[in-house]
Amino acid sequence: MRKKMLVLVLCCITLLSAFLIPAIHATKATPAGGTWVYTPSPISTRWAGSNFIVDGQEDSIWTGTFVGTSYDTFTVVKHDAYPDPNFPRFVNVIGVINFVGKVGDIEGTLEILFVGVKWEEWRGTWVILGGTGDLENLRGRGTWYGPGGNLLYDGKIHFDPS
């Protein structure tokens, strides 16, 4: 029993050290923020019970920390939309941003996951899934908010070691 406990403790220490070592070598997190202006286009719509679902795409322009453009895909769900889909109780969105541009003087592409909810205004979170070029090792996460079409984003970003 003691041997099993010792092995378990050593495994936990090894696992924790694997997570801590990259954090020690990563660059210090810096604030990120700016605007995300998008123009959406629905691709398809459907009903699932009383939920109205829209799959779409959008072209976006980014300013601030992220400077460039993106092509985004998303799914919006208007919950309990009966009897009028223009007045749902609340709306959820999930999507992927395919960003091309710069972060500071560093160029590349980023893939960013975003999720959110709309009551009166949109509010949500974003996280960088990965990148290419000189942005390959950029990591970050944050929030976004606004009335729609013209959103503000903020968060923290840092570079992991290569």
Structural notes for this entry:
Mean pLDDT is 85; it is low at 1-24. The protein has one helix spanning 2-25; strands at residues 30-48, 51-64, 66-79, 90-103, 106-118, 122-133, 138-146, 150-159. 15% of the residues lie in helices and 65% in strands. It contains one helix and eight strands; from the N terminus they run H-E-E-E-E-E-E-E-E. The protein has 162 residues and is mainly β. The protein has one domain (30-159): SO1590-like (AOC barrel-like). The chain has an eight-stranded antiparallel barrel.
Mean pLDDT: 85
CATH superfamily: SO1590-like
How many beta strands in the DSSP annotation? 8
Tell me, what is the CATH class? Mainly Beta
CATH architecture annotation name: Beta Barrel
- Low-pLDDT windows of residues: 1-24
Structural class: mainly beta
CATH topology descriptor: AOC barrel-like
Order of helices and strands: HEEEEEEEE
Task: Let me know the largest β-sheet.
Answer: 8 strands, antiparallel, barrel
Strand content: over 45%
What distance lies between the first and last C-alpha atoms, to the nearest angstrom? 41 Å
Please work out how many helical segments DSSP would assign.
1
Number of domains: 1
Give the topology:
Layout lengths: L1 H24 L4 E19 L2 E14 L1 E14 L10 E14 L2 E13 L3 E12 L4 E9 L3 E10 L3
Antiparallel strand pairs: 1-2, 1-8, 2-3, 3-4, 4-5, 5-6, 6-7, 7-8
Describe the structure concisely.
It is built from one helix and eight strands. By secondary structure, it is mainly beta.
